[in-house]
Amino acid sequence: MNREVFKSILLGVLVLSSIAMTWNIWFYKSDFKNYGGTSNSATPVAIAQSQKLTSVIRPSLILQKEPEGTVGQTDNGRVVSGYKIFQNAVFSNVLPSNRQKSLLKKTDTVSYEIIFPAPLMQGTLKKIFRFGDNNVQIPQDTSVDRVEIYLPVSGGGMAAVFRSQDNRDQFSATVSKVSLNSLNQIFSGGQTGLYGPHRLRNKMVYLPLGPTKVNTEITYIQKIPVDAFIPILFTDPKNVFHYRGKTAYTDGTRQLENNSNILQYVNPGISGSTEMTDPIFHSFEFINNFKAWTNNFVYDGLTLSSNQQDTVTFRLLIGNYMVYNTEYYPSPYLTAMELTWKNQDLSSFNRTLITFSSIDEPGSVTLDSGNEVLTTLKKNGVPIEGIEDMAIGYRIANPQSNDNTSLTALPDWFYKINNRWYSEDATLGSRRPGQQGANP
User: Fold this and answer.
1) CATH number for the domain including 259?
2) Same domain, 360 and 249
3) Domain encompassing residue 407
4) How far apart, in Å, do the first and last CA atoms of the chain sit?
5) Domains in the chain: how many in total?
6) pLDDT in tens, 177-223
7) Whole-angstrom Cα distance, residue 322 to residue 274?
8) Above 60 in pLDDT, residue 434?
9) Does residue 52 belong to any structural domain of this protein?
10) Which pTM does this prediction carry?
């Protein structure tokens, strides 16, 4: 083979290669859809542990309601026991609120109600409760955060009503396989007290009418390397490179970063117009598939938008209460996980990179009643008419250095305005009058 023939063959190979690469560039189509999203990664990954759906999506309060008053139970073990009784019940003959029959109206006797931290949608409701009808017709646009079981005026059994967070009936049902005596036993001990209803902006809450004593918690902390999430969040981990040292990663489209002990992931390259039917269960399943529950987390928030972009929040739970960080962005994610879905794909993901283990209870704090807190906030200029939610919880701060091995969780009241949580202590700038400090 002479030199000219060899050059011609080589040139032909190069031309064909160039045509093939050009074709791939022009007609490239991401395999992300076929891949099924980040929750179906081809690489098996286990960050921590999996959870049962009802361990994550669970009520934070159970009430015993009588004409003489309402008693609330917040002890975690007893709330879970009451929740299981509701789960074992069978709900039949579902009727939307506009078709509710008079026989399901409530009598003025004892009833029991569980309240979730945030509203549930149709799909999740069907997964956590037992509906006796094979083709139960729960309204598609249902938004329920509380369920009450009671005796109807007609007698002959029990009934239930599923309500929205503004306390409006969504649908009712007859109930079987549940004992009011078993529910009554939930209130024979634990952490009970009198509660009263209070209407906030677009939500009815039940607040303690007296002081609440809460133990402080000292927690041992460990940090998860952000690169452990690369196989979960990128379709092709081999094509991911790091920048800014080793705190941030990208594949040219998606970006992953460790920002002060908080994972922040964004995928701006999502297109399409597919609507997600239930982002709550979808979010749970995503975390569960990779055993990424690094602590006890509970479902705590849902934001739906008109552009097929839905956000679901899970919050850290220590003992009987959820944990908050109210410092500036992105510190609130130090104790939470927030997933935003767009057209069924994960658009953004913010979550803590710290695991918490309780190691001591050095003292306690006595918190004011809910009404006293609202009065104090109003006196200090907080627009209480704009408060969307309130809760007792733990306040925790970001570790001040990489050498920190423990953090203190302090009891406090929290209130939400414009979808952001605030601490009462931080608002007031000092301890409330008469409040007991943490004992050494």
Assistant:
1) 3.30.310.160
2) yes
3) 217-431
4) 91
5) 2
6) 999 999 999 999 888 999 999 999 999 999 999 999 999 999 999 99
7) 33
8) no
9) no
10) 0.86
